Amino acid sequence: MSRPEPVQQVKHRRDLALKTLVDAVPYAGFLGIVFERHGDELTAVLPYDDKLIGNPVLPALHGGVIASFLEVAAIIELSWAMLWDELESGRLRPEEMAANLPRLPKTIDFTVDYLRTGLPRDGYARARVNRSGRRYASVHVEAWQDNRARLFAQATGHFLMPQRADG
Amino acid sequence: MTETSPQEFINALPFARALGMRLDSIGGGRAEISMAWDARFVGDPATGVIHGGAVSALMDTCGGAAVMSYPGALTTATIDLRIDYMRAATPGQRITARAECYHVTRRVAFVRATAHDEDSDNPVATATGAFTFDRKEST
User: Fold this and answer.
1) Numbered residues of chain A with Cβ closer than 8 Å to any chain B Cβ
2) Treating both helix axes as pointing N-terminal to C-terminal, what angle do B52-68 and A63-89 enclose, rounded to 10 degrees?
3) CB atoms closer than 10 angstroms to residue A35
């Protein structure tokens, strides 16, 4: 039986793959969205910035910022889930990802439920892939600010999966 | 609380400014708002297509503006918004959203919207949404 892979090597491989995936989406960078990872679990983080405000009187985050945050979180989660097995098996090498970026899922539809005003502070989101077939996927996303149980928005989206070489 | 005209409504939104949105027309529960293609708003680097979230932001802003231009509207906020993406917007082309507030109740406004690039016959996306509707006091 072979020895398990050293932990730092595992972390480096996963972190590099995630960073390459996220860095390739200019709009995620424009909004300032970053991802935190624990094992295969991702949390999208939207650090507060003045430009994200929609209602300066309250003040509140723009509904479009919230929709964008949730859609970015959904697409990255779905792509991450799609690549995970290839990454873990060694078929996909993160060092080679930047030069040969994987095709991303395409949004078919996206429905956002605005539950509470988005406060002028950091936001967090976690997406769950409820169904992922060869062609279509359904993803649910929840977003919160101060309290995990008090969501300020949630969304469901359907996506067209890219055709992968190995089918 | 001061009243806000629809023109000021969009000018006063920092995120609408950040995306470079332009109010093209507004009135009577309808609005048209557009934004230029920008490399910073791209969602898929392989194609240069604008991220769906940026199109959502345009649709949401346009829907809110349409509600604000409905007679008697005071303030509004999005309750829910569904976007259907019909096709990728052509990179480099301006995206224009048109929204119509087609029905209001005492507290809710119903909106539908479409977005297109320079090919105005083939929508890039359509949207439907419900918005809160707060009326001016009729004294």
Assistant:
1) 24-31, 50-57, 60-65, 67-72, 75, 101, 103-104, 106-114, 117
2) 160
3) 20
CA–CA dist A80, A5 (Å, integer)? 21
Q: Residue A33 sits in a domain of what CATH number?
A: 3.10.129.10
- The complex scores an ipTM of 0.92
User: How is residue A17 annotated by DSSP?
Assistant: H
CATH of B6-135, one of 3.40.50.720, 3.10.129.10, 3.40.50.1460, 1.20.810.10: 3.10.129.10
Contact A71 B51 (CB under 8 A): yes
Q: Which pLDDT belongs to residue B1?
A: 38
Q: Give per-residue pLDDT as tens, B93-104.
A: 999 999 999 999
In a domain, A77, yes or no: yes
First to last CA, chain A: 30
